[in-house]
């Protein structure tokens, strides 16, 4: 069959006709510095092919959770986002200040008209051709998307069953790159797909010294028999915002009587020591806490979700709930919608 040559109208029609179900029902709002504004029609959530983030992976991203009309830990995520951008040698788009970028994230969230969901944003080296160096780019680009997630009924109580994980055969990125939340997630995607292919829920990266690093998009923690919760340091893993919040909140929670845990320690932990832990769990902003019940062929303790993981899950869940004068929450200015300029 000959390849079709499309007219501009046919190409535009195809953008509409080719929308998949999740796109139509869960993609809510999109800002593009290339478009110069926000669109809410998911057919138009488009990034151009000459964007270096796309054809060279020269981009960084971050996310934040939208909870009851507030972005949880937006400023903490933004801080890491800007640090990633600096390491990736990506400046802010021409004329865009950090304050403007933050406002754009909040206004894109407002345009979604959703109270709960996720916001993800990218800084790209920008457009300018198909070369390698970001120096050919006309200016960096900023994108932001708001989406909601349908959790199937079968997954609602997944945290009670826990996950089975596999030591990943995929090599861990070198330390400089594990510390940048960049668009180069090929090892991370391969980690997960390798685990899924063998019936596991996730893979765990291990570093060259045999120490546990992290999951493909989550940090990991191991509770030892003496009540010490060990979190691998961030020299071979991403400095997760949620695991840092957990470490900030735990001392008071332990003081107030959280059961089964005595202290938190950040240090390297070998694969063998981790597998012998009484509890293992993953931590991330998208799912907070997920207990691990089996690692390779070995059950973790008795192979059921641990009580420390479940208590920490509740602690973090409570922390995501907006409350007055919280430095962890930013109210979405839904009212600003009325002040937005029409296209
Ligand atoms: C590689 C990696 N590690 C850890 C995390 C957890 O980080 P956070 O708690 O900021 O979501 C993520 C999630 O974004 C990730 O992609």
Automatic annotation (TrEMBL):
Name of the featured protein: Uncharacterized protein
GO biological process, one term: carboxylic acid biosynthetic process
UniProt-listed PANTHER family: AMINO-ACID AMINOTRANSFERASE, D-AMINO-ACID TRANSAMINASE, CHLOROPLASTIC
Organism phylogeny: Eukaryota, Viridiplantae, Chlorophyta, core chlorophytes, Trebouxiophyceae
Family to which this protein belongs: Belongs to the class-IV pyridoxal-phosphate-dependent aminotransferase family.
Organism: Chlorella variabilis
SUPFAM superfamilies xref list: D-aminoacid aminotransferase-like PLP-dependent enzymes
Record-linked Pfam families: Aminotran_4 (PF01063)
Cofactor(s) this protein cannot do without: pyridoxal 5'-phosphate
